[in-house]
Every structure is written in structure tokens, then in C-alpha cells.
Amino acid sequence: MKKLTIAFLHCLLAVAAIAQTQTTAQLHETARSFIKQGDYANAILVLNRAKQQEPSNIPVTKDLAISYYYQNDNTKAMETINSIINNDAIDDQTYLIAGMIYKRSALVKDLEKIYRKALKKFPESGPLYNELGELLWDQKNFDAIKQWEKGIETDPSYSKNYFNAAKYYYLTPDKVWSLLYGEIFINMEPLSNKTPEMKQILLNGYKKLFADADIEKSITDKTPFVKAIAKEINNQSAIAATGISTETLTMIRTRFILGWFGNADQKFKYRLFSYQQQLLREGLFDAYNQWIFGSAQNLGSYQNWVNTNSKTYDEFLNFQKGRIFKVPAGEYYK
What topology is assigned to 24-84 in CATH? Predict the structure, then answer.
């Protein structure tokens, strides 16, 4: 019995020795596994040991702060993130984590200062512009749109600025940008829970666009790009005379793309229009318009269309799944 007890103690000492010899990187990797499982209590336990070994390790501190946040210990989360917030070596994600923590504590003024400081350091961070825009919008500060626009300009493949900007423009007299930004968003995030809301905005946005018979005269944005769009789409205005539906929009948008790319003087490159042209060439543009407008207009009719055209619809979905929609730099015309 005594021998068994001694053997057991030796095993415990061996395990303890292994734990003690784990590097900070190994502890961090273990903690990240716990984070992925949603086991934040164990993540905190391990991360605190990693931080004890290497107090100045920024990635460890970031993960410790976010673990405290998800464990609903905002006091500890704040204390942890504040220990590195003034460190010149932190990345933009650290500021975003700080934003989550400060927002929960309703420290609005402090948070705005943090975001503005972060943007001086990371002037091309789409997520930071989006978060600052949302913070301003919550305060009913309409300068929010300037942040979302800057995010679109500097980080064009980040989706959330498009979503917020599209919703903003839909509430204004503008008739074009809500349509462009909204459609870009749903192509970037086709499976998002925000996509159905944006599809409805797009359908209503086209009704708003065609409310005036002369679109060229009715647009409020007179920039060359928008004027070119208005001129081309105005040629299809007569089709809207019977009302806006999935079918009429498919006709209007098909003729618009043919006219846009058929114009030898057209100098504006725009990823959304190139994608629509590609869908036309693949014979999938009808399915694409059904996916956007049919589901927003009448879910029952849309489902009937899907059942009747299942082969084409499946081809469209496969086409969509096989591509990541990104907007290249240099296509900002606002």
C-alpha cells in the first residue's frame, strides 16, 4: 500500500512538472482551445498562468480580456484591456475588443476617444470605422455616415460599412447608394441574418427610385458615376410603369447591364455590375433576381419559382457558394 501511495505521488509530481514546463505559447494554445469550446472559465484559468509567465504578452492579454468579457466579468475585462490599451504594439483588433468592453460599461465618451486614436494608427481599418459610425449613430450623430463611407473607401471588402451606409441612405432622399451598397452587402454576406432585411430595403428602394418618371432629374447625387447610372436606368423607366415586381426588375436590370457595358464611353469599373454581367452570361441572372427580390416580395411565390426552376436555382447557389465577393480598391466614386 505504501509503495502504491509513493507511486501515486510520483505521478502527481510528474504531471505538475509537465505543467510547469509548458511554455507561454503552449498555455496560450490550450486556452484558445477552451475559448473555441466556449469554456471561458478554463480559458481564464490557463491564460492567467500564461500571463504570469509572460506579463507583457499582448496576444495572451487580449484573449484574457475577451474571455472575462464573455464570462460577464466586465470589471476584470476592463482592468485587463486597460493594461495594454496604451501599448504602441497593439493591433486594431485590440481596440475592437476594448470597444466591446467599454460599450458594455456605457463609457461612450471614452470609447469615442479610443476609436479615434485607433483610426489615427490604423486609418484603413474597416471594422474601426464601422464601430465608430455605430457609436455616433446611437448618439443620433449623423456624422456616422462619414465613418461608414471612409470605411468603404479604405477597406472596400469589409461588409458591415455597406450595410449601415445602405440603411442610412434609404432613410434619406438619396435613391441610388442604398441600392448599390445594399446589394454589395448581400453578396458579401448572403447567409447573414441581416440579409433578408436588406433584400426588403432593396425592393422598396427600387420603388423609391422609380417613383419619379424622370430618374435623371430626380436624383439628389450629381456625381459623374451616379449621373451615368441614372442616365442608363432612365432608359428603362417605361418598364416600371406597370409597377415594380421581381419580373419587371429582372427586365430593367438586364437591360441596364447590357446598356452599361455596351456603352463604349463607359469608364467606370464597378465590381457589382461586373458580377451581374457574369451572372447574365452564365444564364443565372433570373435566379439571382429571384433570390433578392422574389423572397422579399412574396415568399410563397418565390418558393413556387424555386420548385419549378430547381435546376437553375441549384446552379445559382453553387455558383454563389464557389465565390467570395470582394470589391477591389479604386472603385470608390462617392
Answer: 1.25.40
- What does the CA dihedral 135, 197, 205, 315 come to, rounded to 10 degrees? 130
Neighbours of 64 (CB within 10 A): 26
Please give the pLDDT value at position 20.
57
Domain ranges of the chain: 24-84, 176-334
Is 125 in contact with 92 (CB distance < 8 Å)?
A: yes
The C-alpha atoms of residue 313 and residue 148 are separated, in whole angstroms, by 33
Residue type, 42: N
pLDDT per residue over 153-205, tens digit each? 999 999 999 999 999 999 999 999 999 999 999 999 999 999 999 999 999 99
Are 205 and 175 within 8 A, CB to CB?
A: yes
pLDDT at 17: 46
Structure confidence at residue 13 (pLDDT): 40
Q: How many CA atoms lie within 13 A of 232 on its CB side?
A: 24
Residues of the chain with pLDDT under 70: 1-20
How far apart CA 104 and CA 70 sit, in angstroms, is 11
Q: For the packed helices 126-138 and 144-154, what is the interaxial angle rounded to 10 degrees?
A: 170
Which DSSP string do the residues of 260-273 spell out, in sequence order? Answer: HHH-TT-----HHH
- CB of 111 within 8 A of CB of 100? no
pLDDT for the residue 163: 98
The per-residue pLDDT for 21 is 73
- The DSSP annotation for 22-37 comes to --HHHHHHHHHHHHHH
Handedness of CA 141, 142, 143, 144 (dihedral sign): positive
Going by C-alpha positions, the residue among 157, 206, 183, 201 that lies closest to residue 332 is: 157
pTM: 0.90
Nine-digit cell string for 285: 441572372
Determine the Cα angle at 114 with ends 109 and 119, to 5°. 125
